[in-house]
Write a structure and sequence with these properties.
This protein is of the alpha/beta class. It has two domains: 6-100, Rossmann fold (3-Layer(aba) Sandwich); 124-207, Sufe protein. Chain: A (Alpha-Beta Complex). It is 34% helix and 19% strand. Strand 5 and strand 6 (133-141) form a beta hairpin. Helix 4 runs antiparallel to helix 5 (160-174) and helix 5 (160-174) runs antiparallel to helix 6.
């Protein structure tokens, strides 16, 4: 009997989720992007009193990824998903009844995120070192944009010390988050968070050697 792929539906605004869609397509084994709904922000008013006219409830998926920027539509999408008992991830948002990690690469493990959450989220690495030099890195879990896998390749052949000093910066070079979008409480942007979670992943992997 064929194993059914884990089906994801993506809602985005002006292509805001394309980078993640590309990463999921490449690294998401047994995961299928079933549908992508792309909303044109130029057609949207500042306030939407009738969000049901913009988002269809004809929706079926194992998981929904919410990259919609307009708050009224984003909130309505979560309501639709709740009604249909579909878990929804809304990175960088603060929405009731949604999973809201600060960034896609800081998603904690959660049974509700299924196969997606097993492969994607807060990075986990397995490293082999010989004579203080990194000889191999296996990405056990990584950023949906693919940054973890891309950065891991660059660390092969580095000393542990050099890798620790460079992984955060190398991640930030690849990350497509807005560096000016600072959180007023933490004082960090998503770009900083992406660098930090990858540094932490490397430190944890090195401890296990």
């Amino acid at each position: 009997m064929d194993k059914k792929p884990y089906k994801i539906v993506v809602f985005q605004e002006d292509g805001s989720g394309e980078y993640k869609i590309a990463g999921i397509t490449v690294f998401g084994e047994d995961i299928e992007i079933e549908r992508v709904f792309d909303i044109n922000s130029s057609d949207l008013p500042d306030f939407i009193d009738d969000p049901e006219n913009y988002l269809s409830e004809d929706l079926s998926a194992d998981l929904v990824l919410n990259f919609i920027k307009h708050p009224d539509l984003s909130e309505h999408l979560v309501k639709i998903c709740k009604k249909k008992n579909i878990p929804v991830i809304s990175s960088g948002k603060n929405l009731m009844d949604s999973i809201n990690p600060p960034t896609c690469c800081s998603l904690q493990k959660d049974s509700k995120t299924g196969k997606y959450g097993t492969i994607f989220g807060k990075p986990e690495l397995k490293i082999t070192v010989r004579d203080n030099v990194i000889t191999s890195i296996e990405v056990k879990r990584g950023a949906p944009c693919g940054a973890t896998w891309m950065v891991a390749k660059k660390l092969i052949g580095m000393t542990k010390e050099d890798a620790l000093s460079k992984i955060g910066r190398e991640t930030q070079y690849i990350c497509m988050s807005d560096p000016s979008d600072f959180d007023p409480i933490s004082g960090k942007s998503p770009l900083h968070i992406a660098g930090d979670v990858h540094i932490e992943a490397l430190k944890e992997a090195l401890k296990k050697i």
